[in-house]
Amino acid sequence: LTGFLVSGNRLYMVEFTQLAAAYSKVNLGQGFPDFAPPKFVQEAFCHALNEGPMMHQYTRAFGHVPLVKSLAKFFSRVIGHEIDPLEDILVTVGAYQALFSAFQALINEGDEVIIVEPFFDCYQPMVKMAGGQPVYIPLRPVSDGSVLSSGDWVLSPEELASKFTPRTKALVINTPNNPLGKVYKTEELQMIADLCIKHDVLVISDEVYEWLTYDGAKHVKIASLPGMWERTITIGSGGKTFSATGWKVGWAISSGHIIKHMKTIHQNTVYHCATPAQEAVARGFEREYEVFGTPESYFQQLPAMLHHKKNKLASLLKSVGLKPIMPEGGYFMTADFSSINCDDPSSKDEAKDFRFVKWLIKEKGLATIPVSAFYSPEHGKEFDKYIRFCFVKEEATLDAAAEILKKWS
Ligand code: PMP
Ligand code: GLN
């Protein structure tokens, strides 16, 4: 049998997660917290399980009503647009399924989709599965050698403008970005928005790390810019929001005329996401609505905790000669390993960063992810001197990573 649309794709996250399970003592690879979600959402989940028989049954296909209501209430305030809970929101099985439903519903055979690199690795196969053609544009460091922060990685407005054609249907951005941690500034988003309005293009904005920003960086929703609500699908994740990635509750928020097409995909594939998990996320947002902007808010507490972990990891990496790029957001840090001279001679046909990551897992027991996995094959080679570390980890995990790195240096 031949002709499968995505049969040639490698599933990097799956491959490296398997390697990590087999060899690593310390896993700073896949992005998930190794600590518990906050008490208030754990209690909300337990409460939901004991709330009566209906909490164990099907709920509304497009989103449990308490959840869409709490999301609408919360995000209307953030976006500055009155969100209709029943028309403008689709609850999905994680942000993954929101992305999948968006591509399936909105991309037709031959449509072009502009993807900003580095990108979360499922965008490319999802675009292809929908029959679309990915068109890539890399963020580039402003000047090589002195790159200190993810903010130094930028899009060239001229290069971006050159990617639009009459076939361009959508553009995908991810802010804060996985893996770089870039948080797009308003001016950068405005430049993207202007081009999308000019060419009548949709924006799929993956904002799963929206609450995680550091050192004064501010997350801005592209949907909140003038003229963008009607053409933006904003994607979020309960798993990332409340440190409960296994719950797999995600959502897409957009104008009802866009969401209705995604609903068709959703109701004919997945139907709905687990009821008690939706109830727990709803209660989490209700609570956050009340304490928003105060030190009690988890959306302040989690970034404050991660700020310390980020700095700890950065000093650690520097102490062994790696050159970290300080993330402005998210829970990953990329680092340049070119000054380190270690290699796995068995696999010279693979990219440098893939070889380095395999060596680090197998020989040192430390799992990370190669950054060229977040690039198209045509651009991966330019960026194969970086690896990604996840820092949403217990102090003990980071200390164990420190032990490995100290022994190695
Ligand atoms: N987008 C990005 C940028 C991610 O890093 C991830 C990984 N969690 C997802 C989407 C998927 O999120 P979820 O676990 O809610 O499906
Ligand atoms: N988003 C997480 C990461 O980038 C996990 C996703 C996955 O394992 N597929 O590591």
TrEMBL record:
InterPro entries: Aminotransferase_I/II_large, Kynurenine-oxoglutarate_AT, PyrdxlP-dep_Trfase, PyrdxlP-dep_Trfase_major, PyrdxlP-dep_Trfase_small. Gene3D superfamilies: Aspartate Aminotransferase, domain 1, Type I PLP-dependent aspartate aminotransferase-like (Major domain). Belongs to the class-I pyridoxal-phosphate-dependent aminotransferase family. It holds the Pfam family Aminotran_1_2. SUPFAM superfamilies: PLP-dependent transferases. It catalyses: L-kynurenine + 2-oxoglutarate = kynurenate + L-glutamate + H2O; an S-substituted L-cysteine + H2O = a thiol + pyruvate + NH4(+). Its cofactor is pyridoxal 5'-phosphate. It comes from Takifugu rubripes (Japanese pufferfish). This is Kynurenine aminotransferase 1.
